[in-house]
Amino acid sequence: MGKGVWVGIIGIVAVIGIGVGGVYAHQQTQDKTLKAEQAKTKSMSKKLDGIDNKVLKDKRDKESSSSNQTTSDLDTSSSQSSVKDTQLVELTDAQKQEINEAFLNWADRWATIGNMAVNDYYFGHGAAGRGDWYANTPDGQMQVQDENNPGPTAFPIHIIGGAVFLTMKDGATGRQNDIVESTAGGYSDKADMSKPITKYILGDNGKVYELKTNDGQVSLTTGFGEYSDDGTASDYHPDQSFVVSGDSDAQKELQKLISVYR
What we know:
- By secondary structure, the chain is of the alpha+beta class.
- The protein contains 3 helices and 9 strands, in the order H-H-E-E-E-E-E-E-E-E-E-H.
- Strands 1, 2, 3, 4, 5, 6, 7, 8 and 9 form a 9-stranded mixed beta sheet that branches.
- A hairpin with a 4-residue loop joins strand 6 (about 195-205) and strand 7.
- It starts with a helix and ends with a helix.
């Protein structure tokens, strides 16, 4: 083989080598560029994910806040509705007696469970003037006995009836028909005065109020005061005030009993 032929072959091989090397180098460059783009894409994707997650979190927080506000509004509305449900209901004397009788029958079971007696002698007095009797409550004065001085229109609440819970000396429990022998003796005639005595009064606003005593110094007029004969304020104020009873069962029972008259 001639020298020229060898030179030609070598030249061809060199050209091929250069071509292959160029292709390889180009491929390496493309790979690096692709990896760099992929890295940028991945980084951008993470950033976008972070932004999306923040936006989503902010949206959820906003929705949660809105939901909480709605719940708060509903609670407020419910509370206001509950207050509206305590509007006065007009009742005849006969209807008041029916409601109080039913309430006493309901109280009979609970008094028995508590080893106590219950009776409707929550209030009484001996000789008195001609003024209206009343009780103080967080919702204003409740008219307890109407003598028309100053009369029903002067009071925001009027009594339907009431009950007194006490412990009998003879151990009798539940509803009792006779717990007072005399106005002078009052509860001490038959009740154990060393035990608590609780008075419930039922208002025509649909609320039950209570006065609980623990010292035994309770009489038939405890918790009640009287206006003067001409209907003006007198010095005979209630010695104690009634509070809204925390007895939810009693509250529900009264609401149920007067609902038919609303």
